[in-house]
Design a protein that fits this description.
By secondary structure, the chain is of the alpha+beta class. Helix content is 43%, strand content 24%.
Length: 364
Amino acid sequence: MESKNAQISSLIELNDELENYFRNTIIPQLFVDAHLILRKFTPPAMRQFSLALTDVGRPIADIRENFRFPAIVENIQHVIDSGEILEKEIQTTDMRWYQMNILPYLVQKENKTNGVIITFVEVTRRIKDLKEQEKMIAEHEMLLDTISHDIKTPLTSLGLTIEMLKKIPEKGMARFPLLLEKVENSLFNMQQVIRDLTSARVAGHKYQTVEELLDFDHIMEDVRLTLAPQIEESKAVIRSEIAVSEIIFVRRKLRSMIYNLINNAIKYRSPQRRPEILVRTEREDDFMIITIKDNGSGIAQADLPDIFKKYHRLSDVVEGSGVGLYLVNEIVSHSGGKISVESTLGQGSVFRISLKLEPLDSRV
């Protein structure tokens, strides 16, 4: 009898702990049983998805509209049937983005799935921020590339004017005010360019170029979030095989390289098949080798020598500026790395990047 009372007491204690957890957690969470009945949810889920206490005990199919995500019931059923964890970025009909994780609730004694626990983390602001960073990187590189041209023109004009001033005879000083005005205009133009550049640097101050120890898995997570709409629309499957994860590099630059290559793999997908992209890292001597392989439309051999040139586009049908691969090549080259590509038209491409790692003995 005492043993039975102890078991009951233990169950009550466990239930109290579970109730306290659900009551105090700041993350929207749902517990749905194997019959697709909503059994419990956290207060943030009530606020986020307009749930009421009367929704407990109802079939999830009856309240699916609350979550504004049409495939939620199918996703729950898949986890119950397969016992696999499902992690994906979803967009609700009110245009917000969430990181949704559906975990199977396992009954150890029976070794079966008795339901799922679903967590939602809103990532809308983070996706917007990441997109702004990618836009800023492209604009910044374009700005730096055009600065030399914008300054070169007034500098050339200034140099010619100075040479003309030197050749003016004393009797020709009547032209001096006009030439001096040209000098002043050239100086003003250069000052304006410098002011514009300074403003751009101030605006981008929070994204300073600083090397740090990075985890490649985190970079992949950022890229997935940034490309969440494209991944959802194309139904792309992105797999990772990360043998080497840590590298000292500039976060936004590494993210920009991976973003551009995966974005291209999605954009230039084959119309005959679902896009499949494999991202793999490995170590060769003191280099991290990043390989991005896709099953897309591929690149003609005649185009391969030009793909890293600025404004070179493989297709006029696909939207783009022709800057992505140029930026990737610039970042890799300036970091002392190398990039290569192998491709077969109609079958896909493999991009291979090698980036310098710290020697193993330097971390001891």
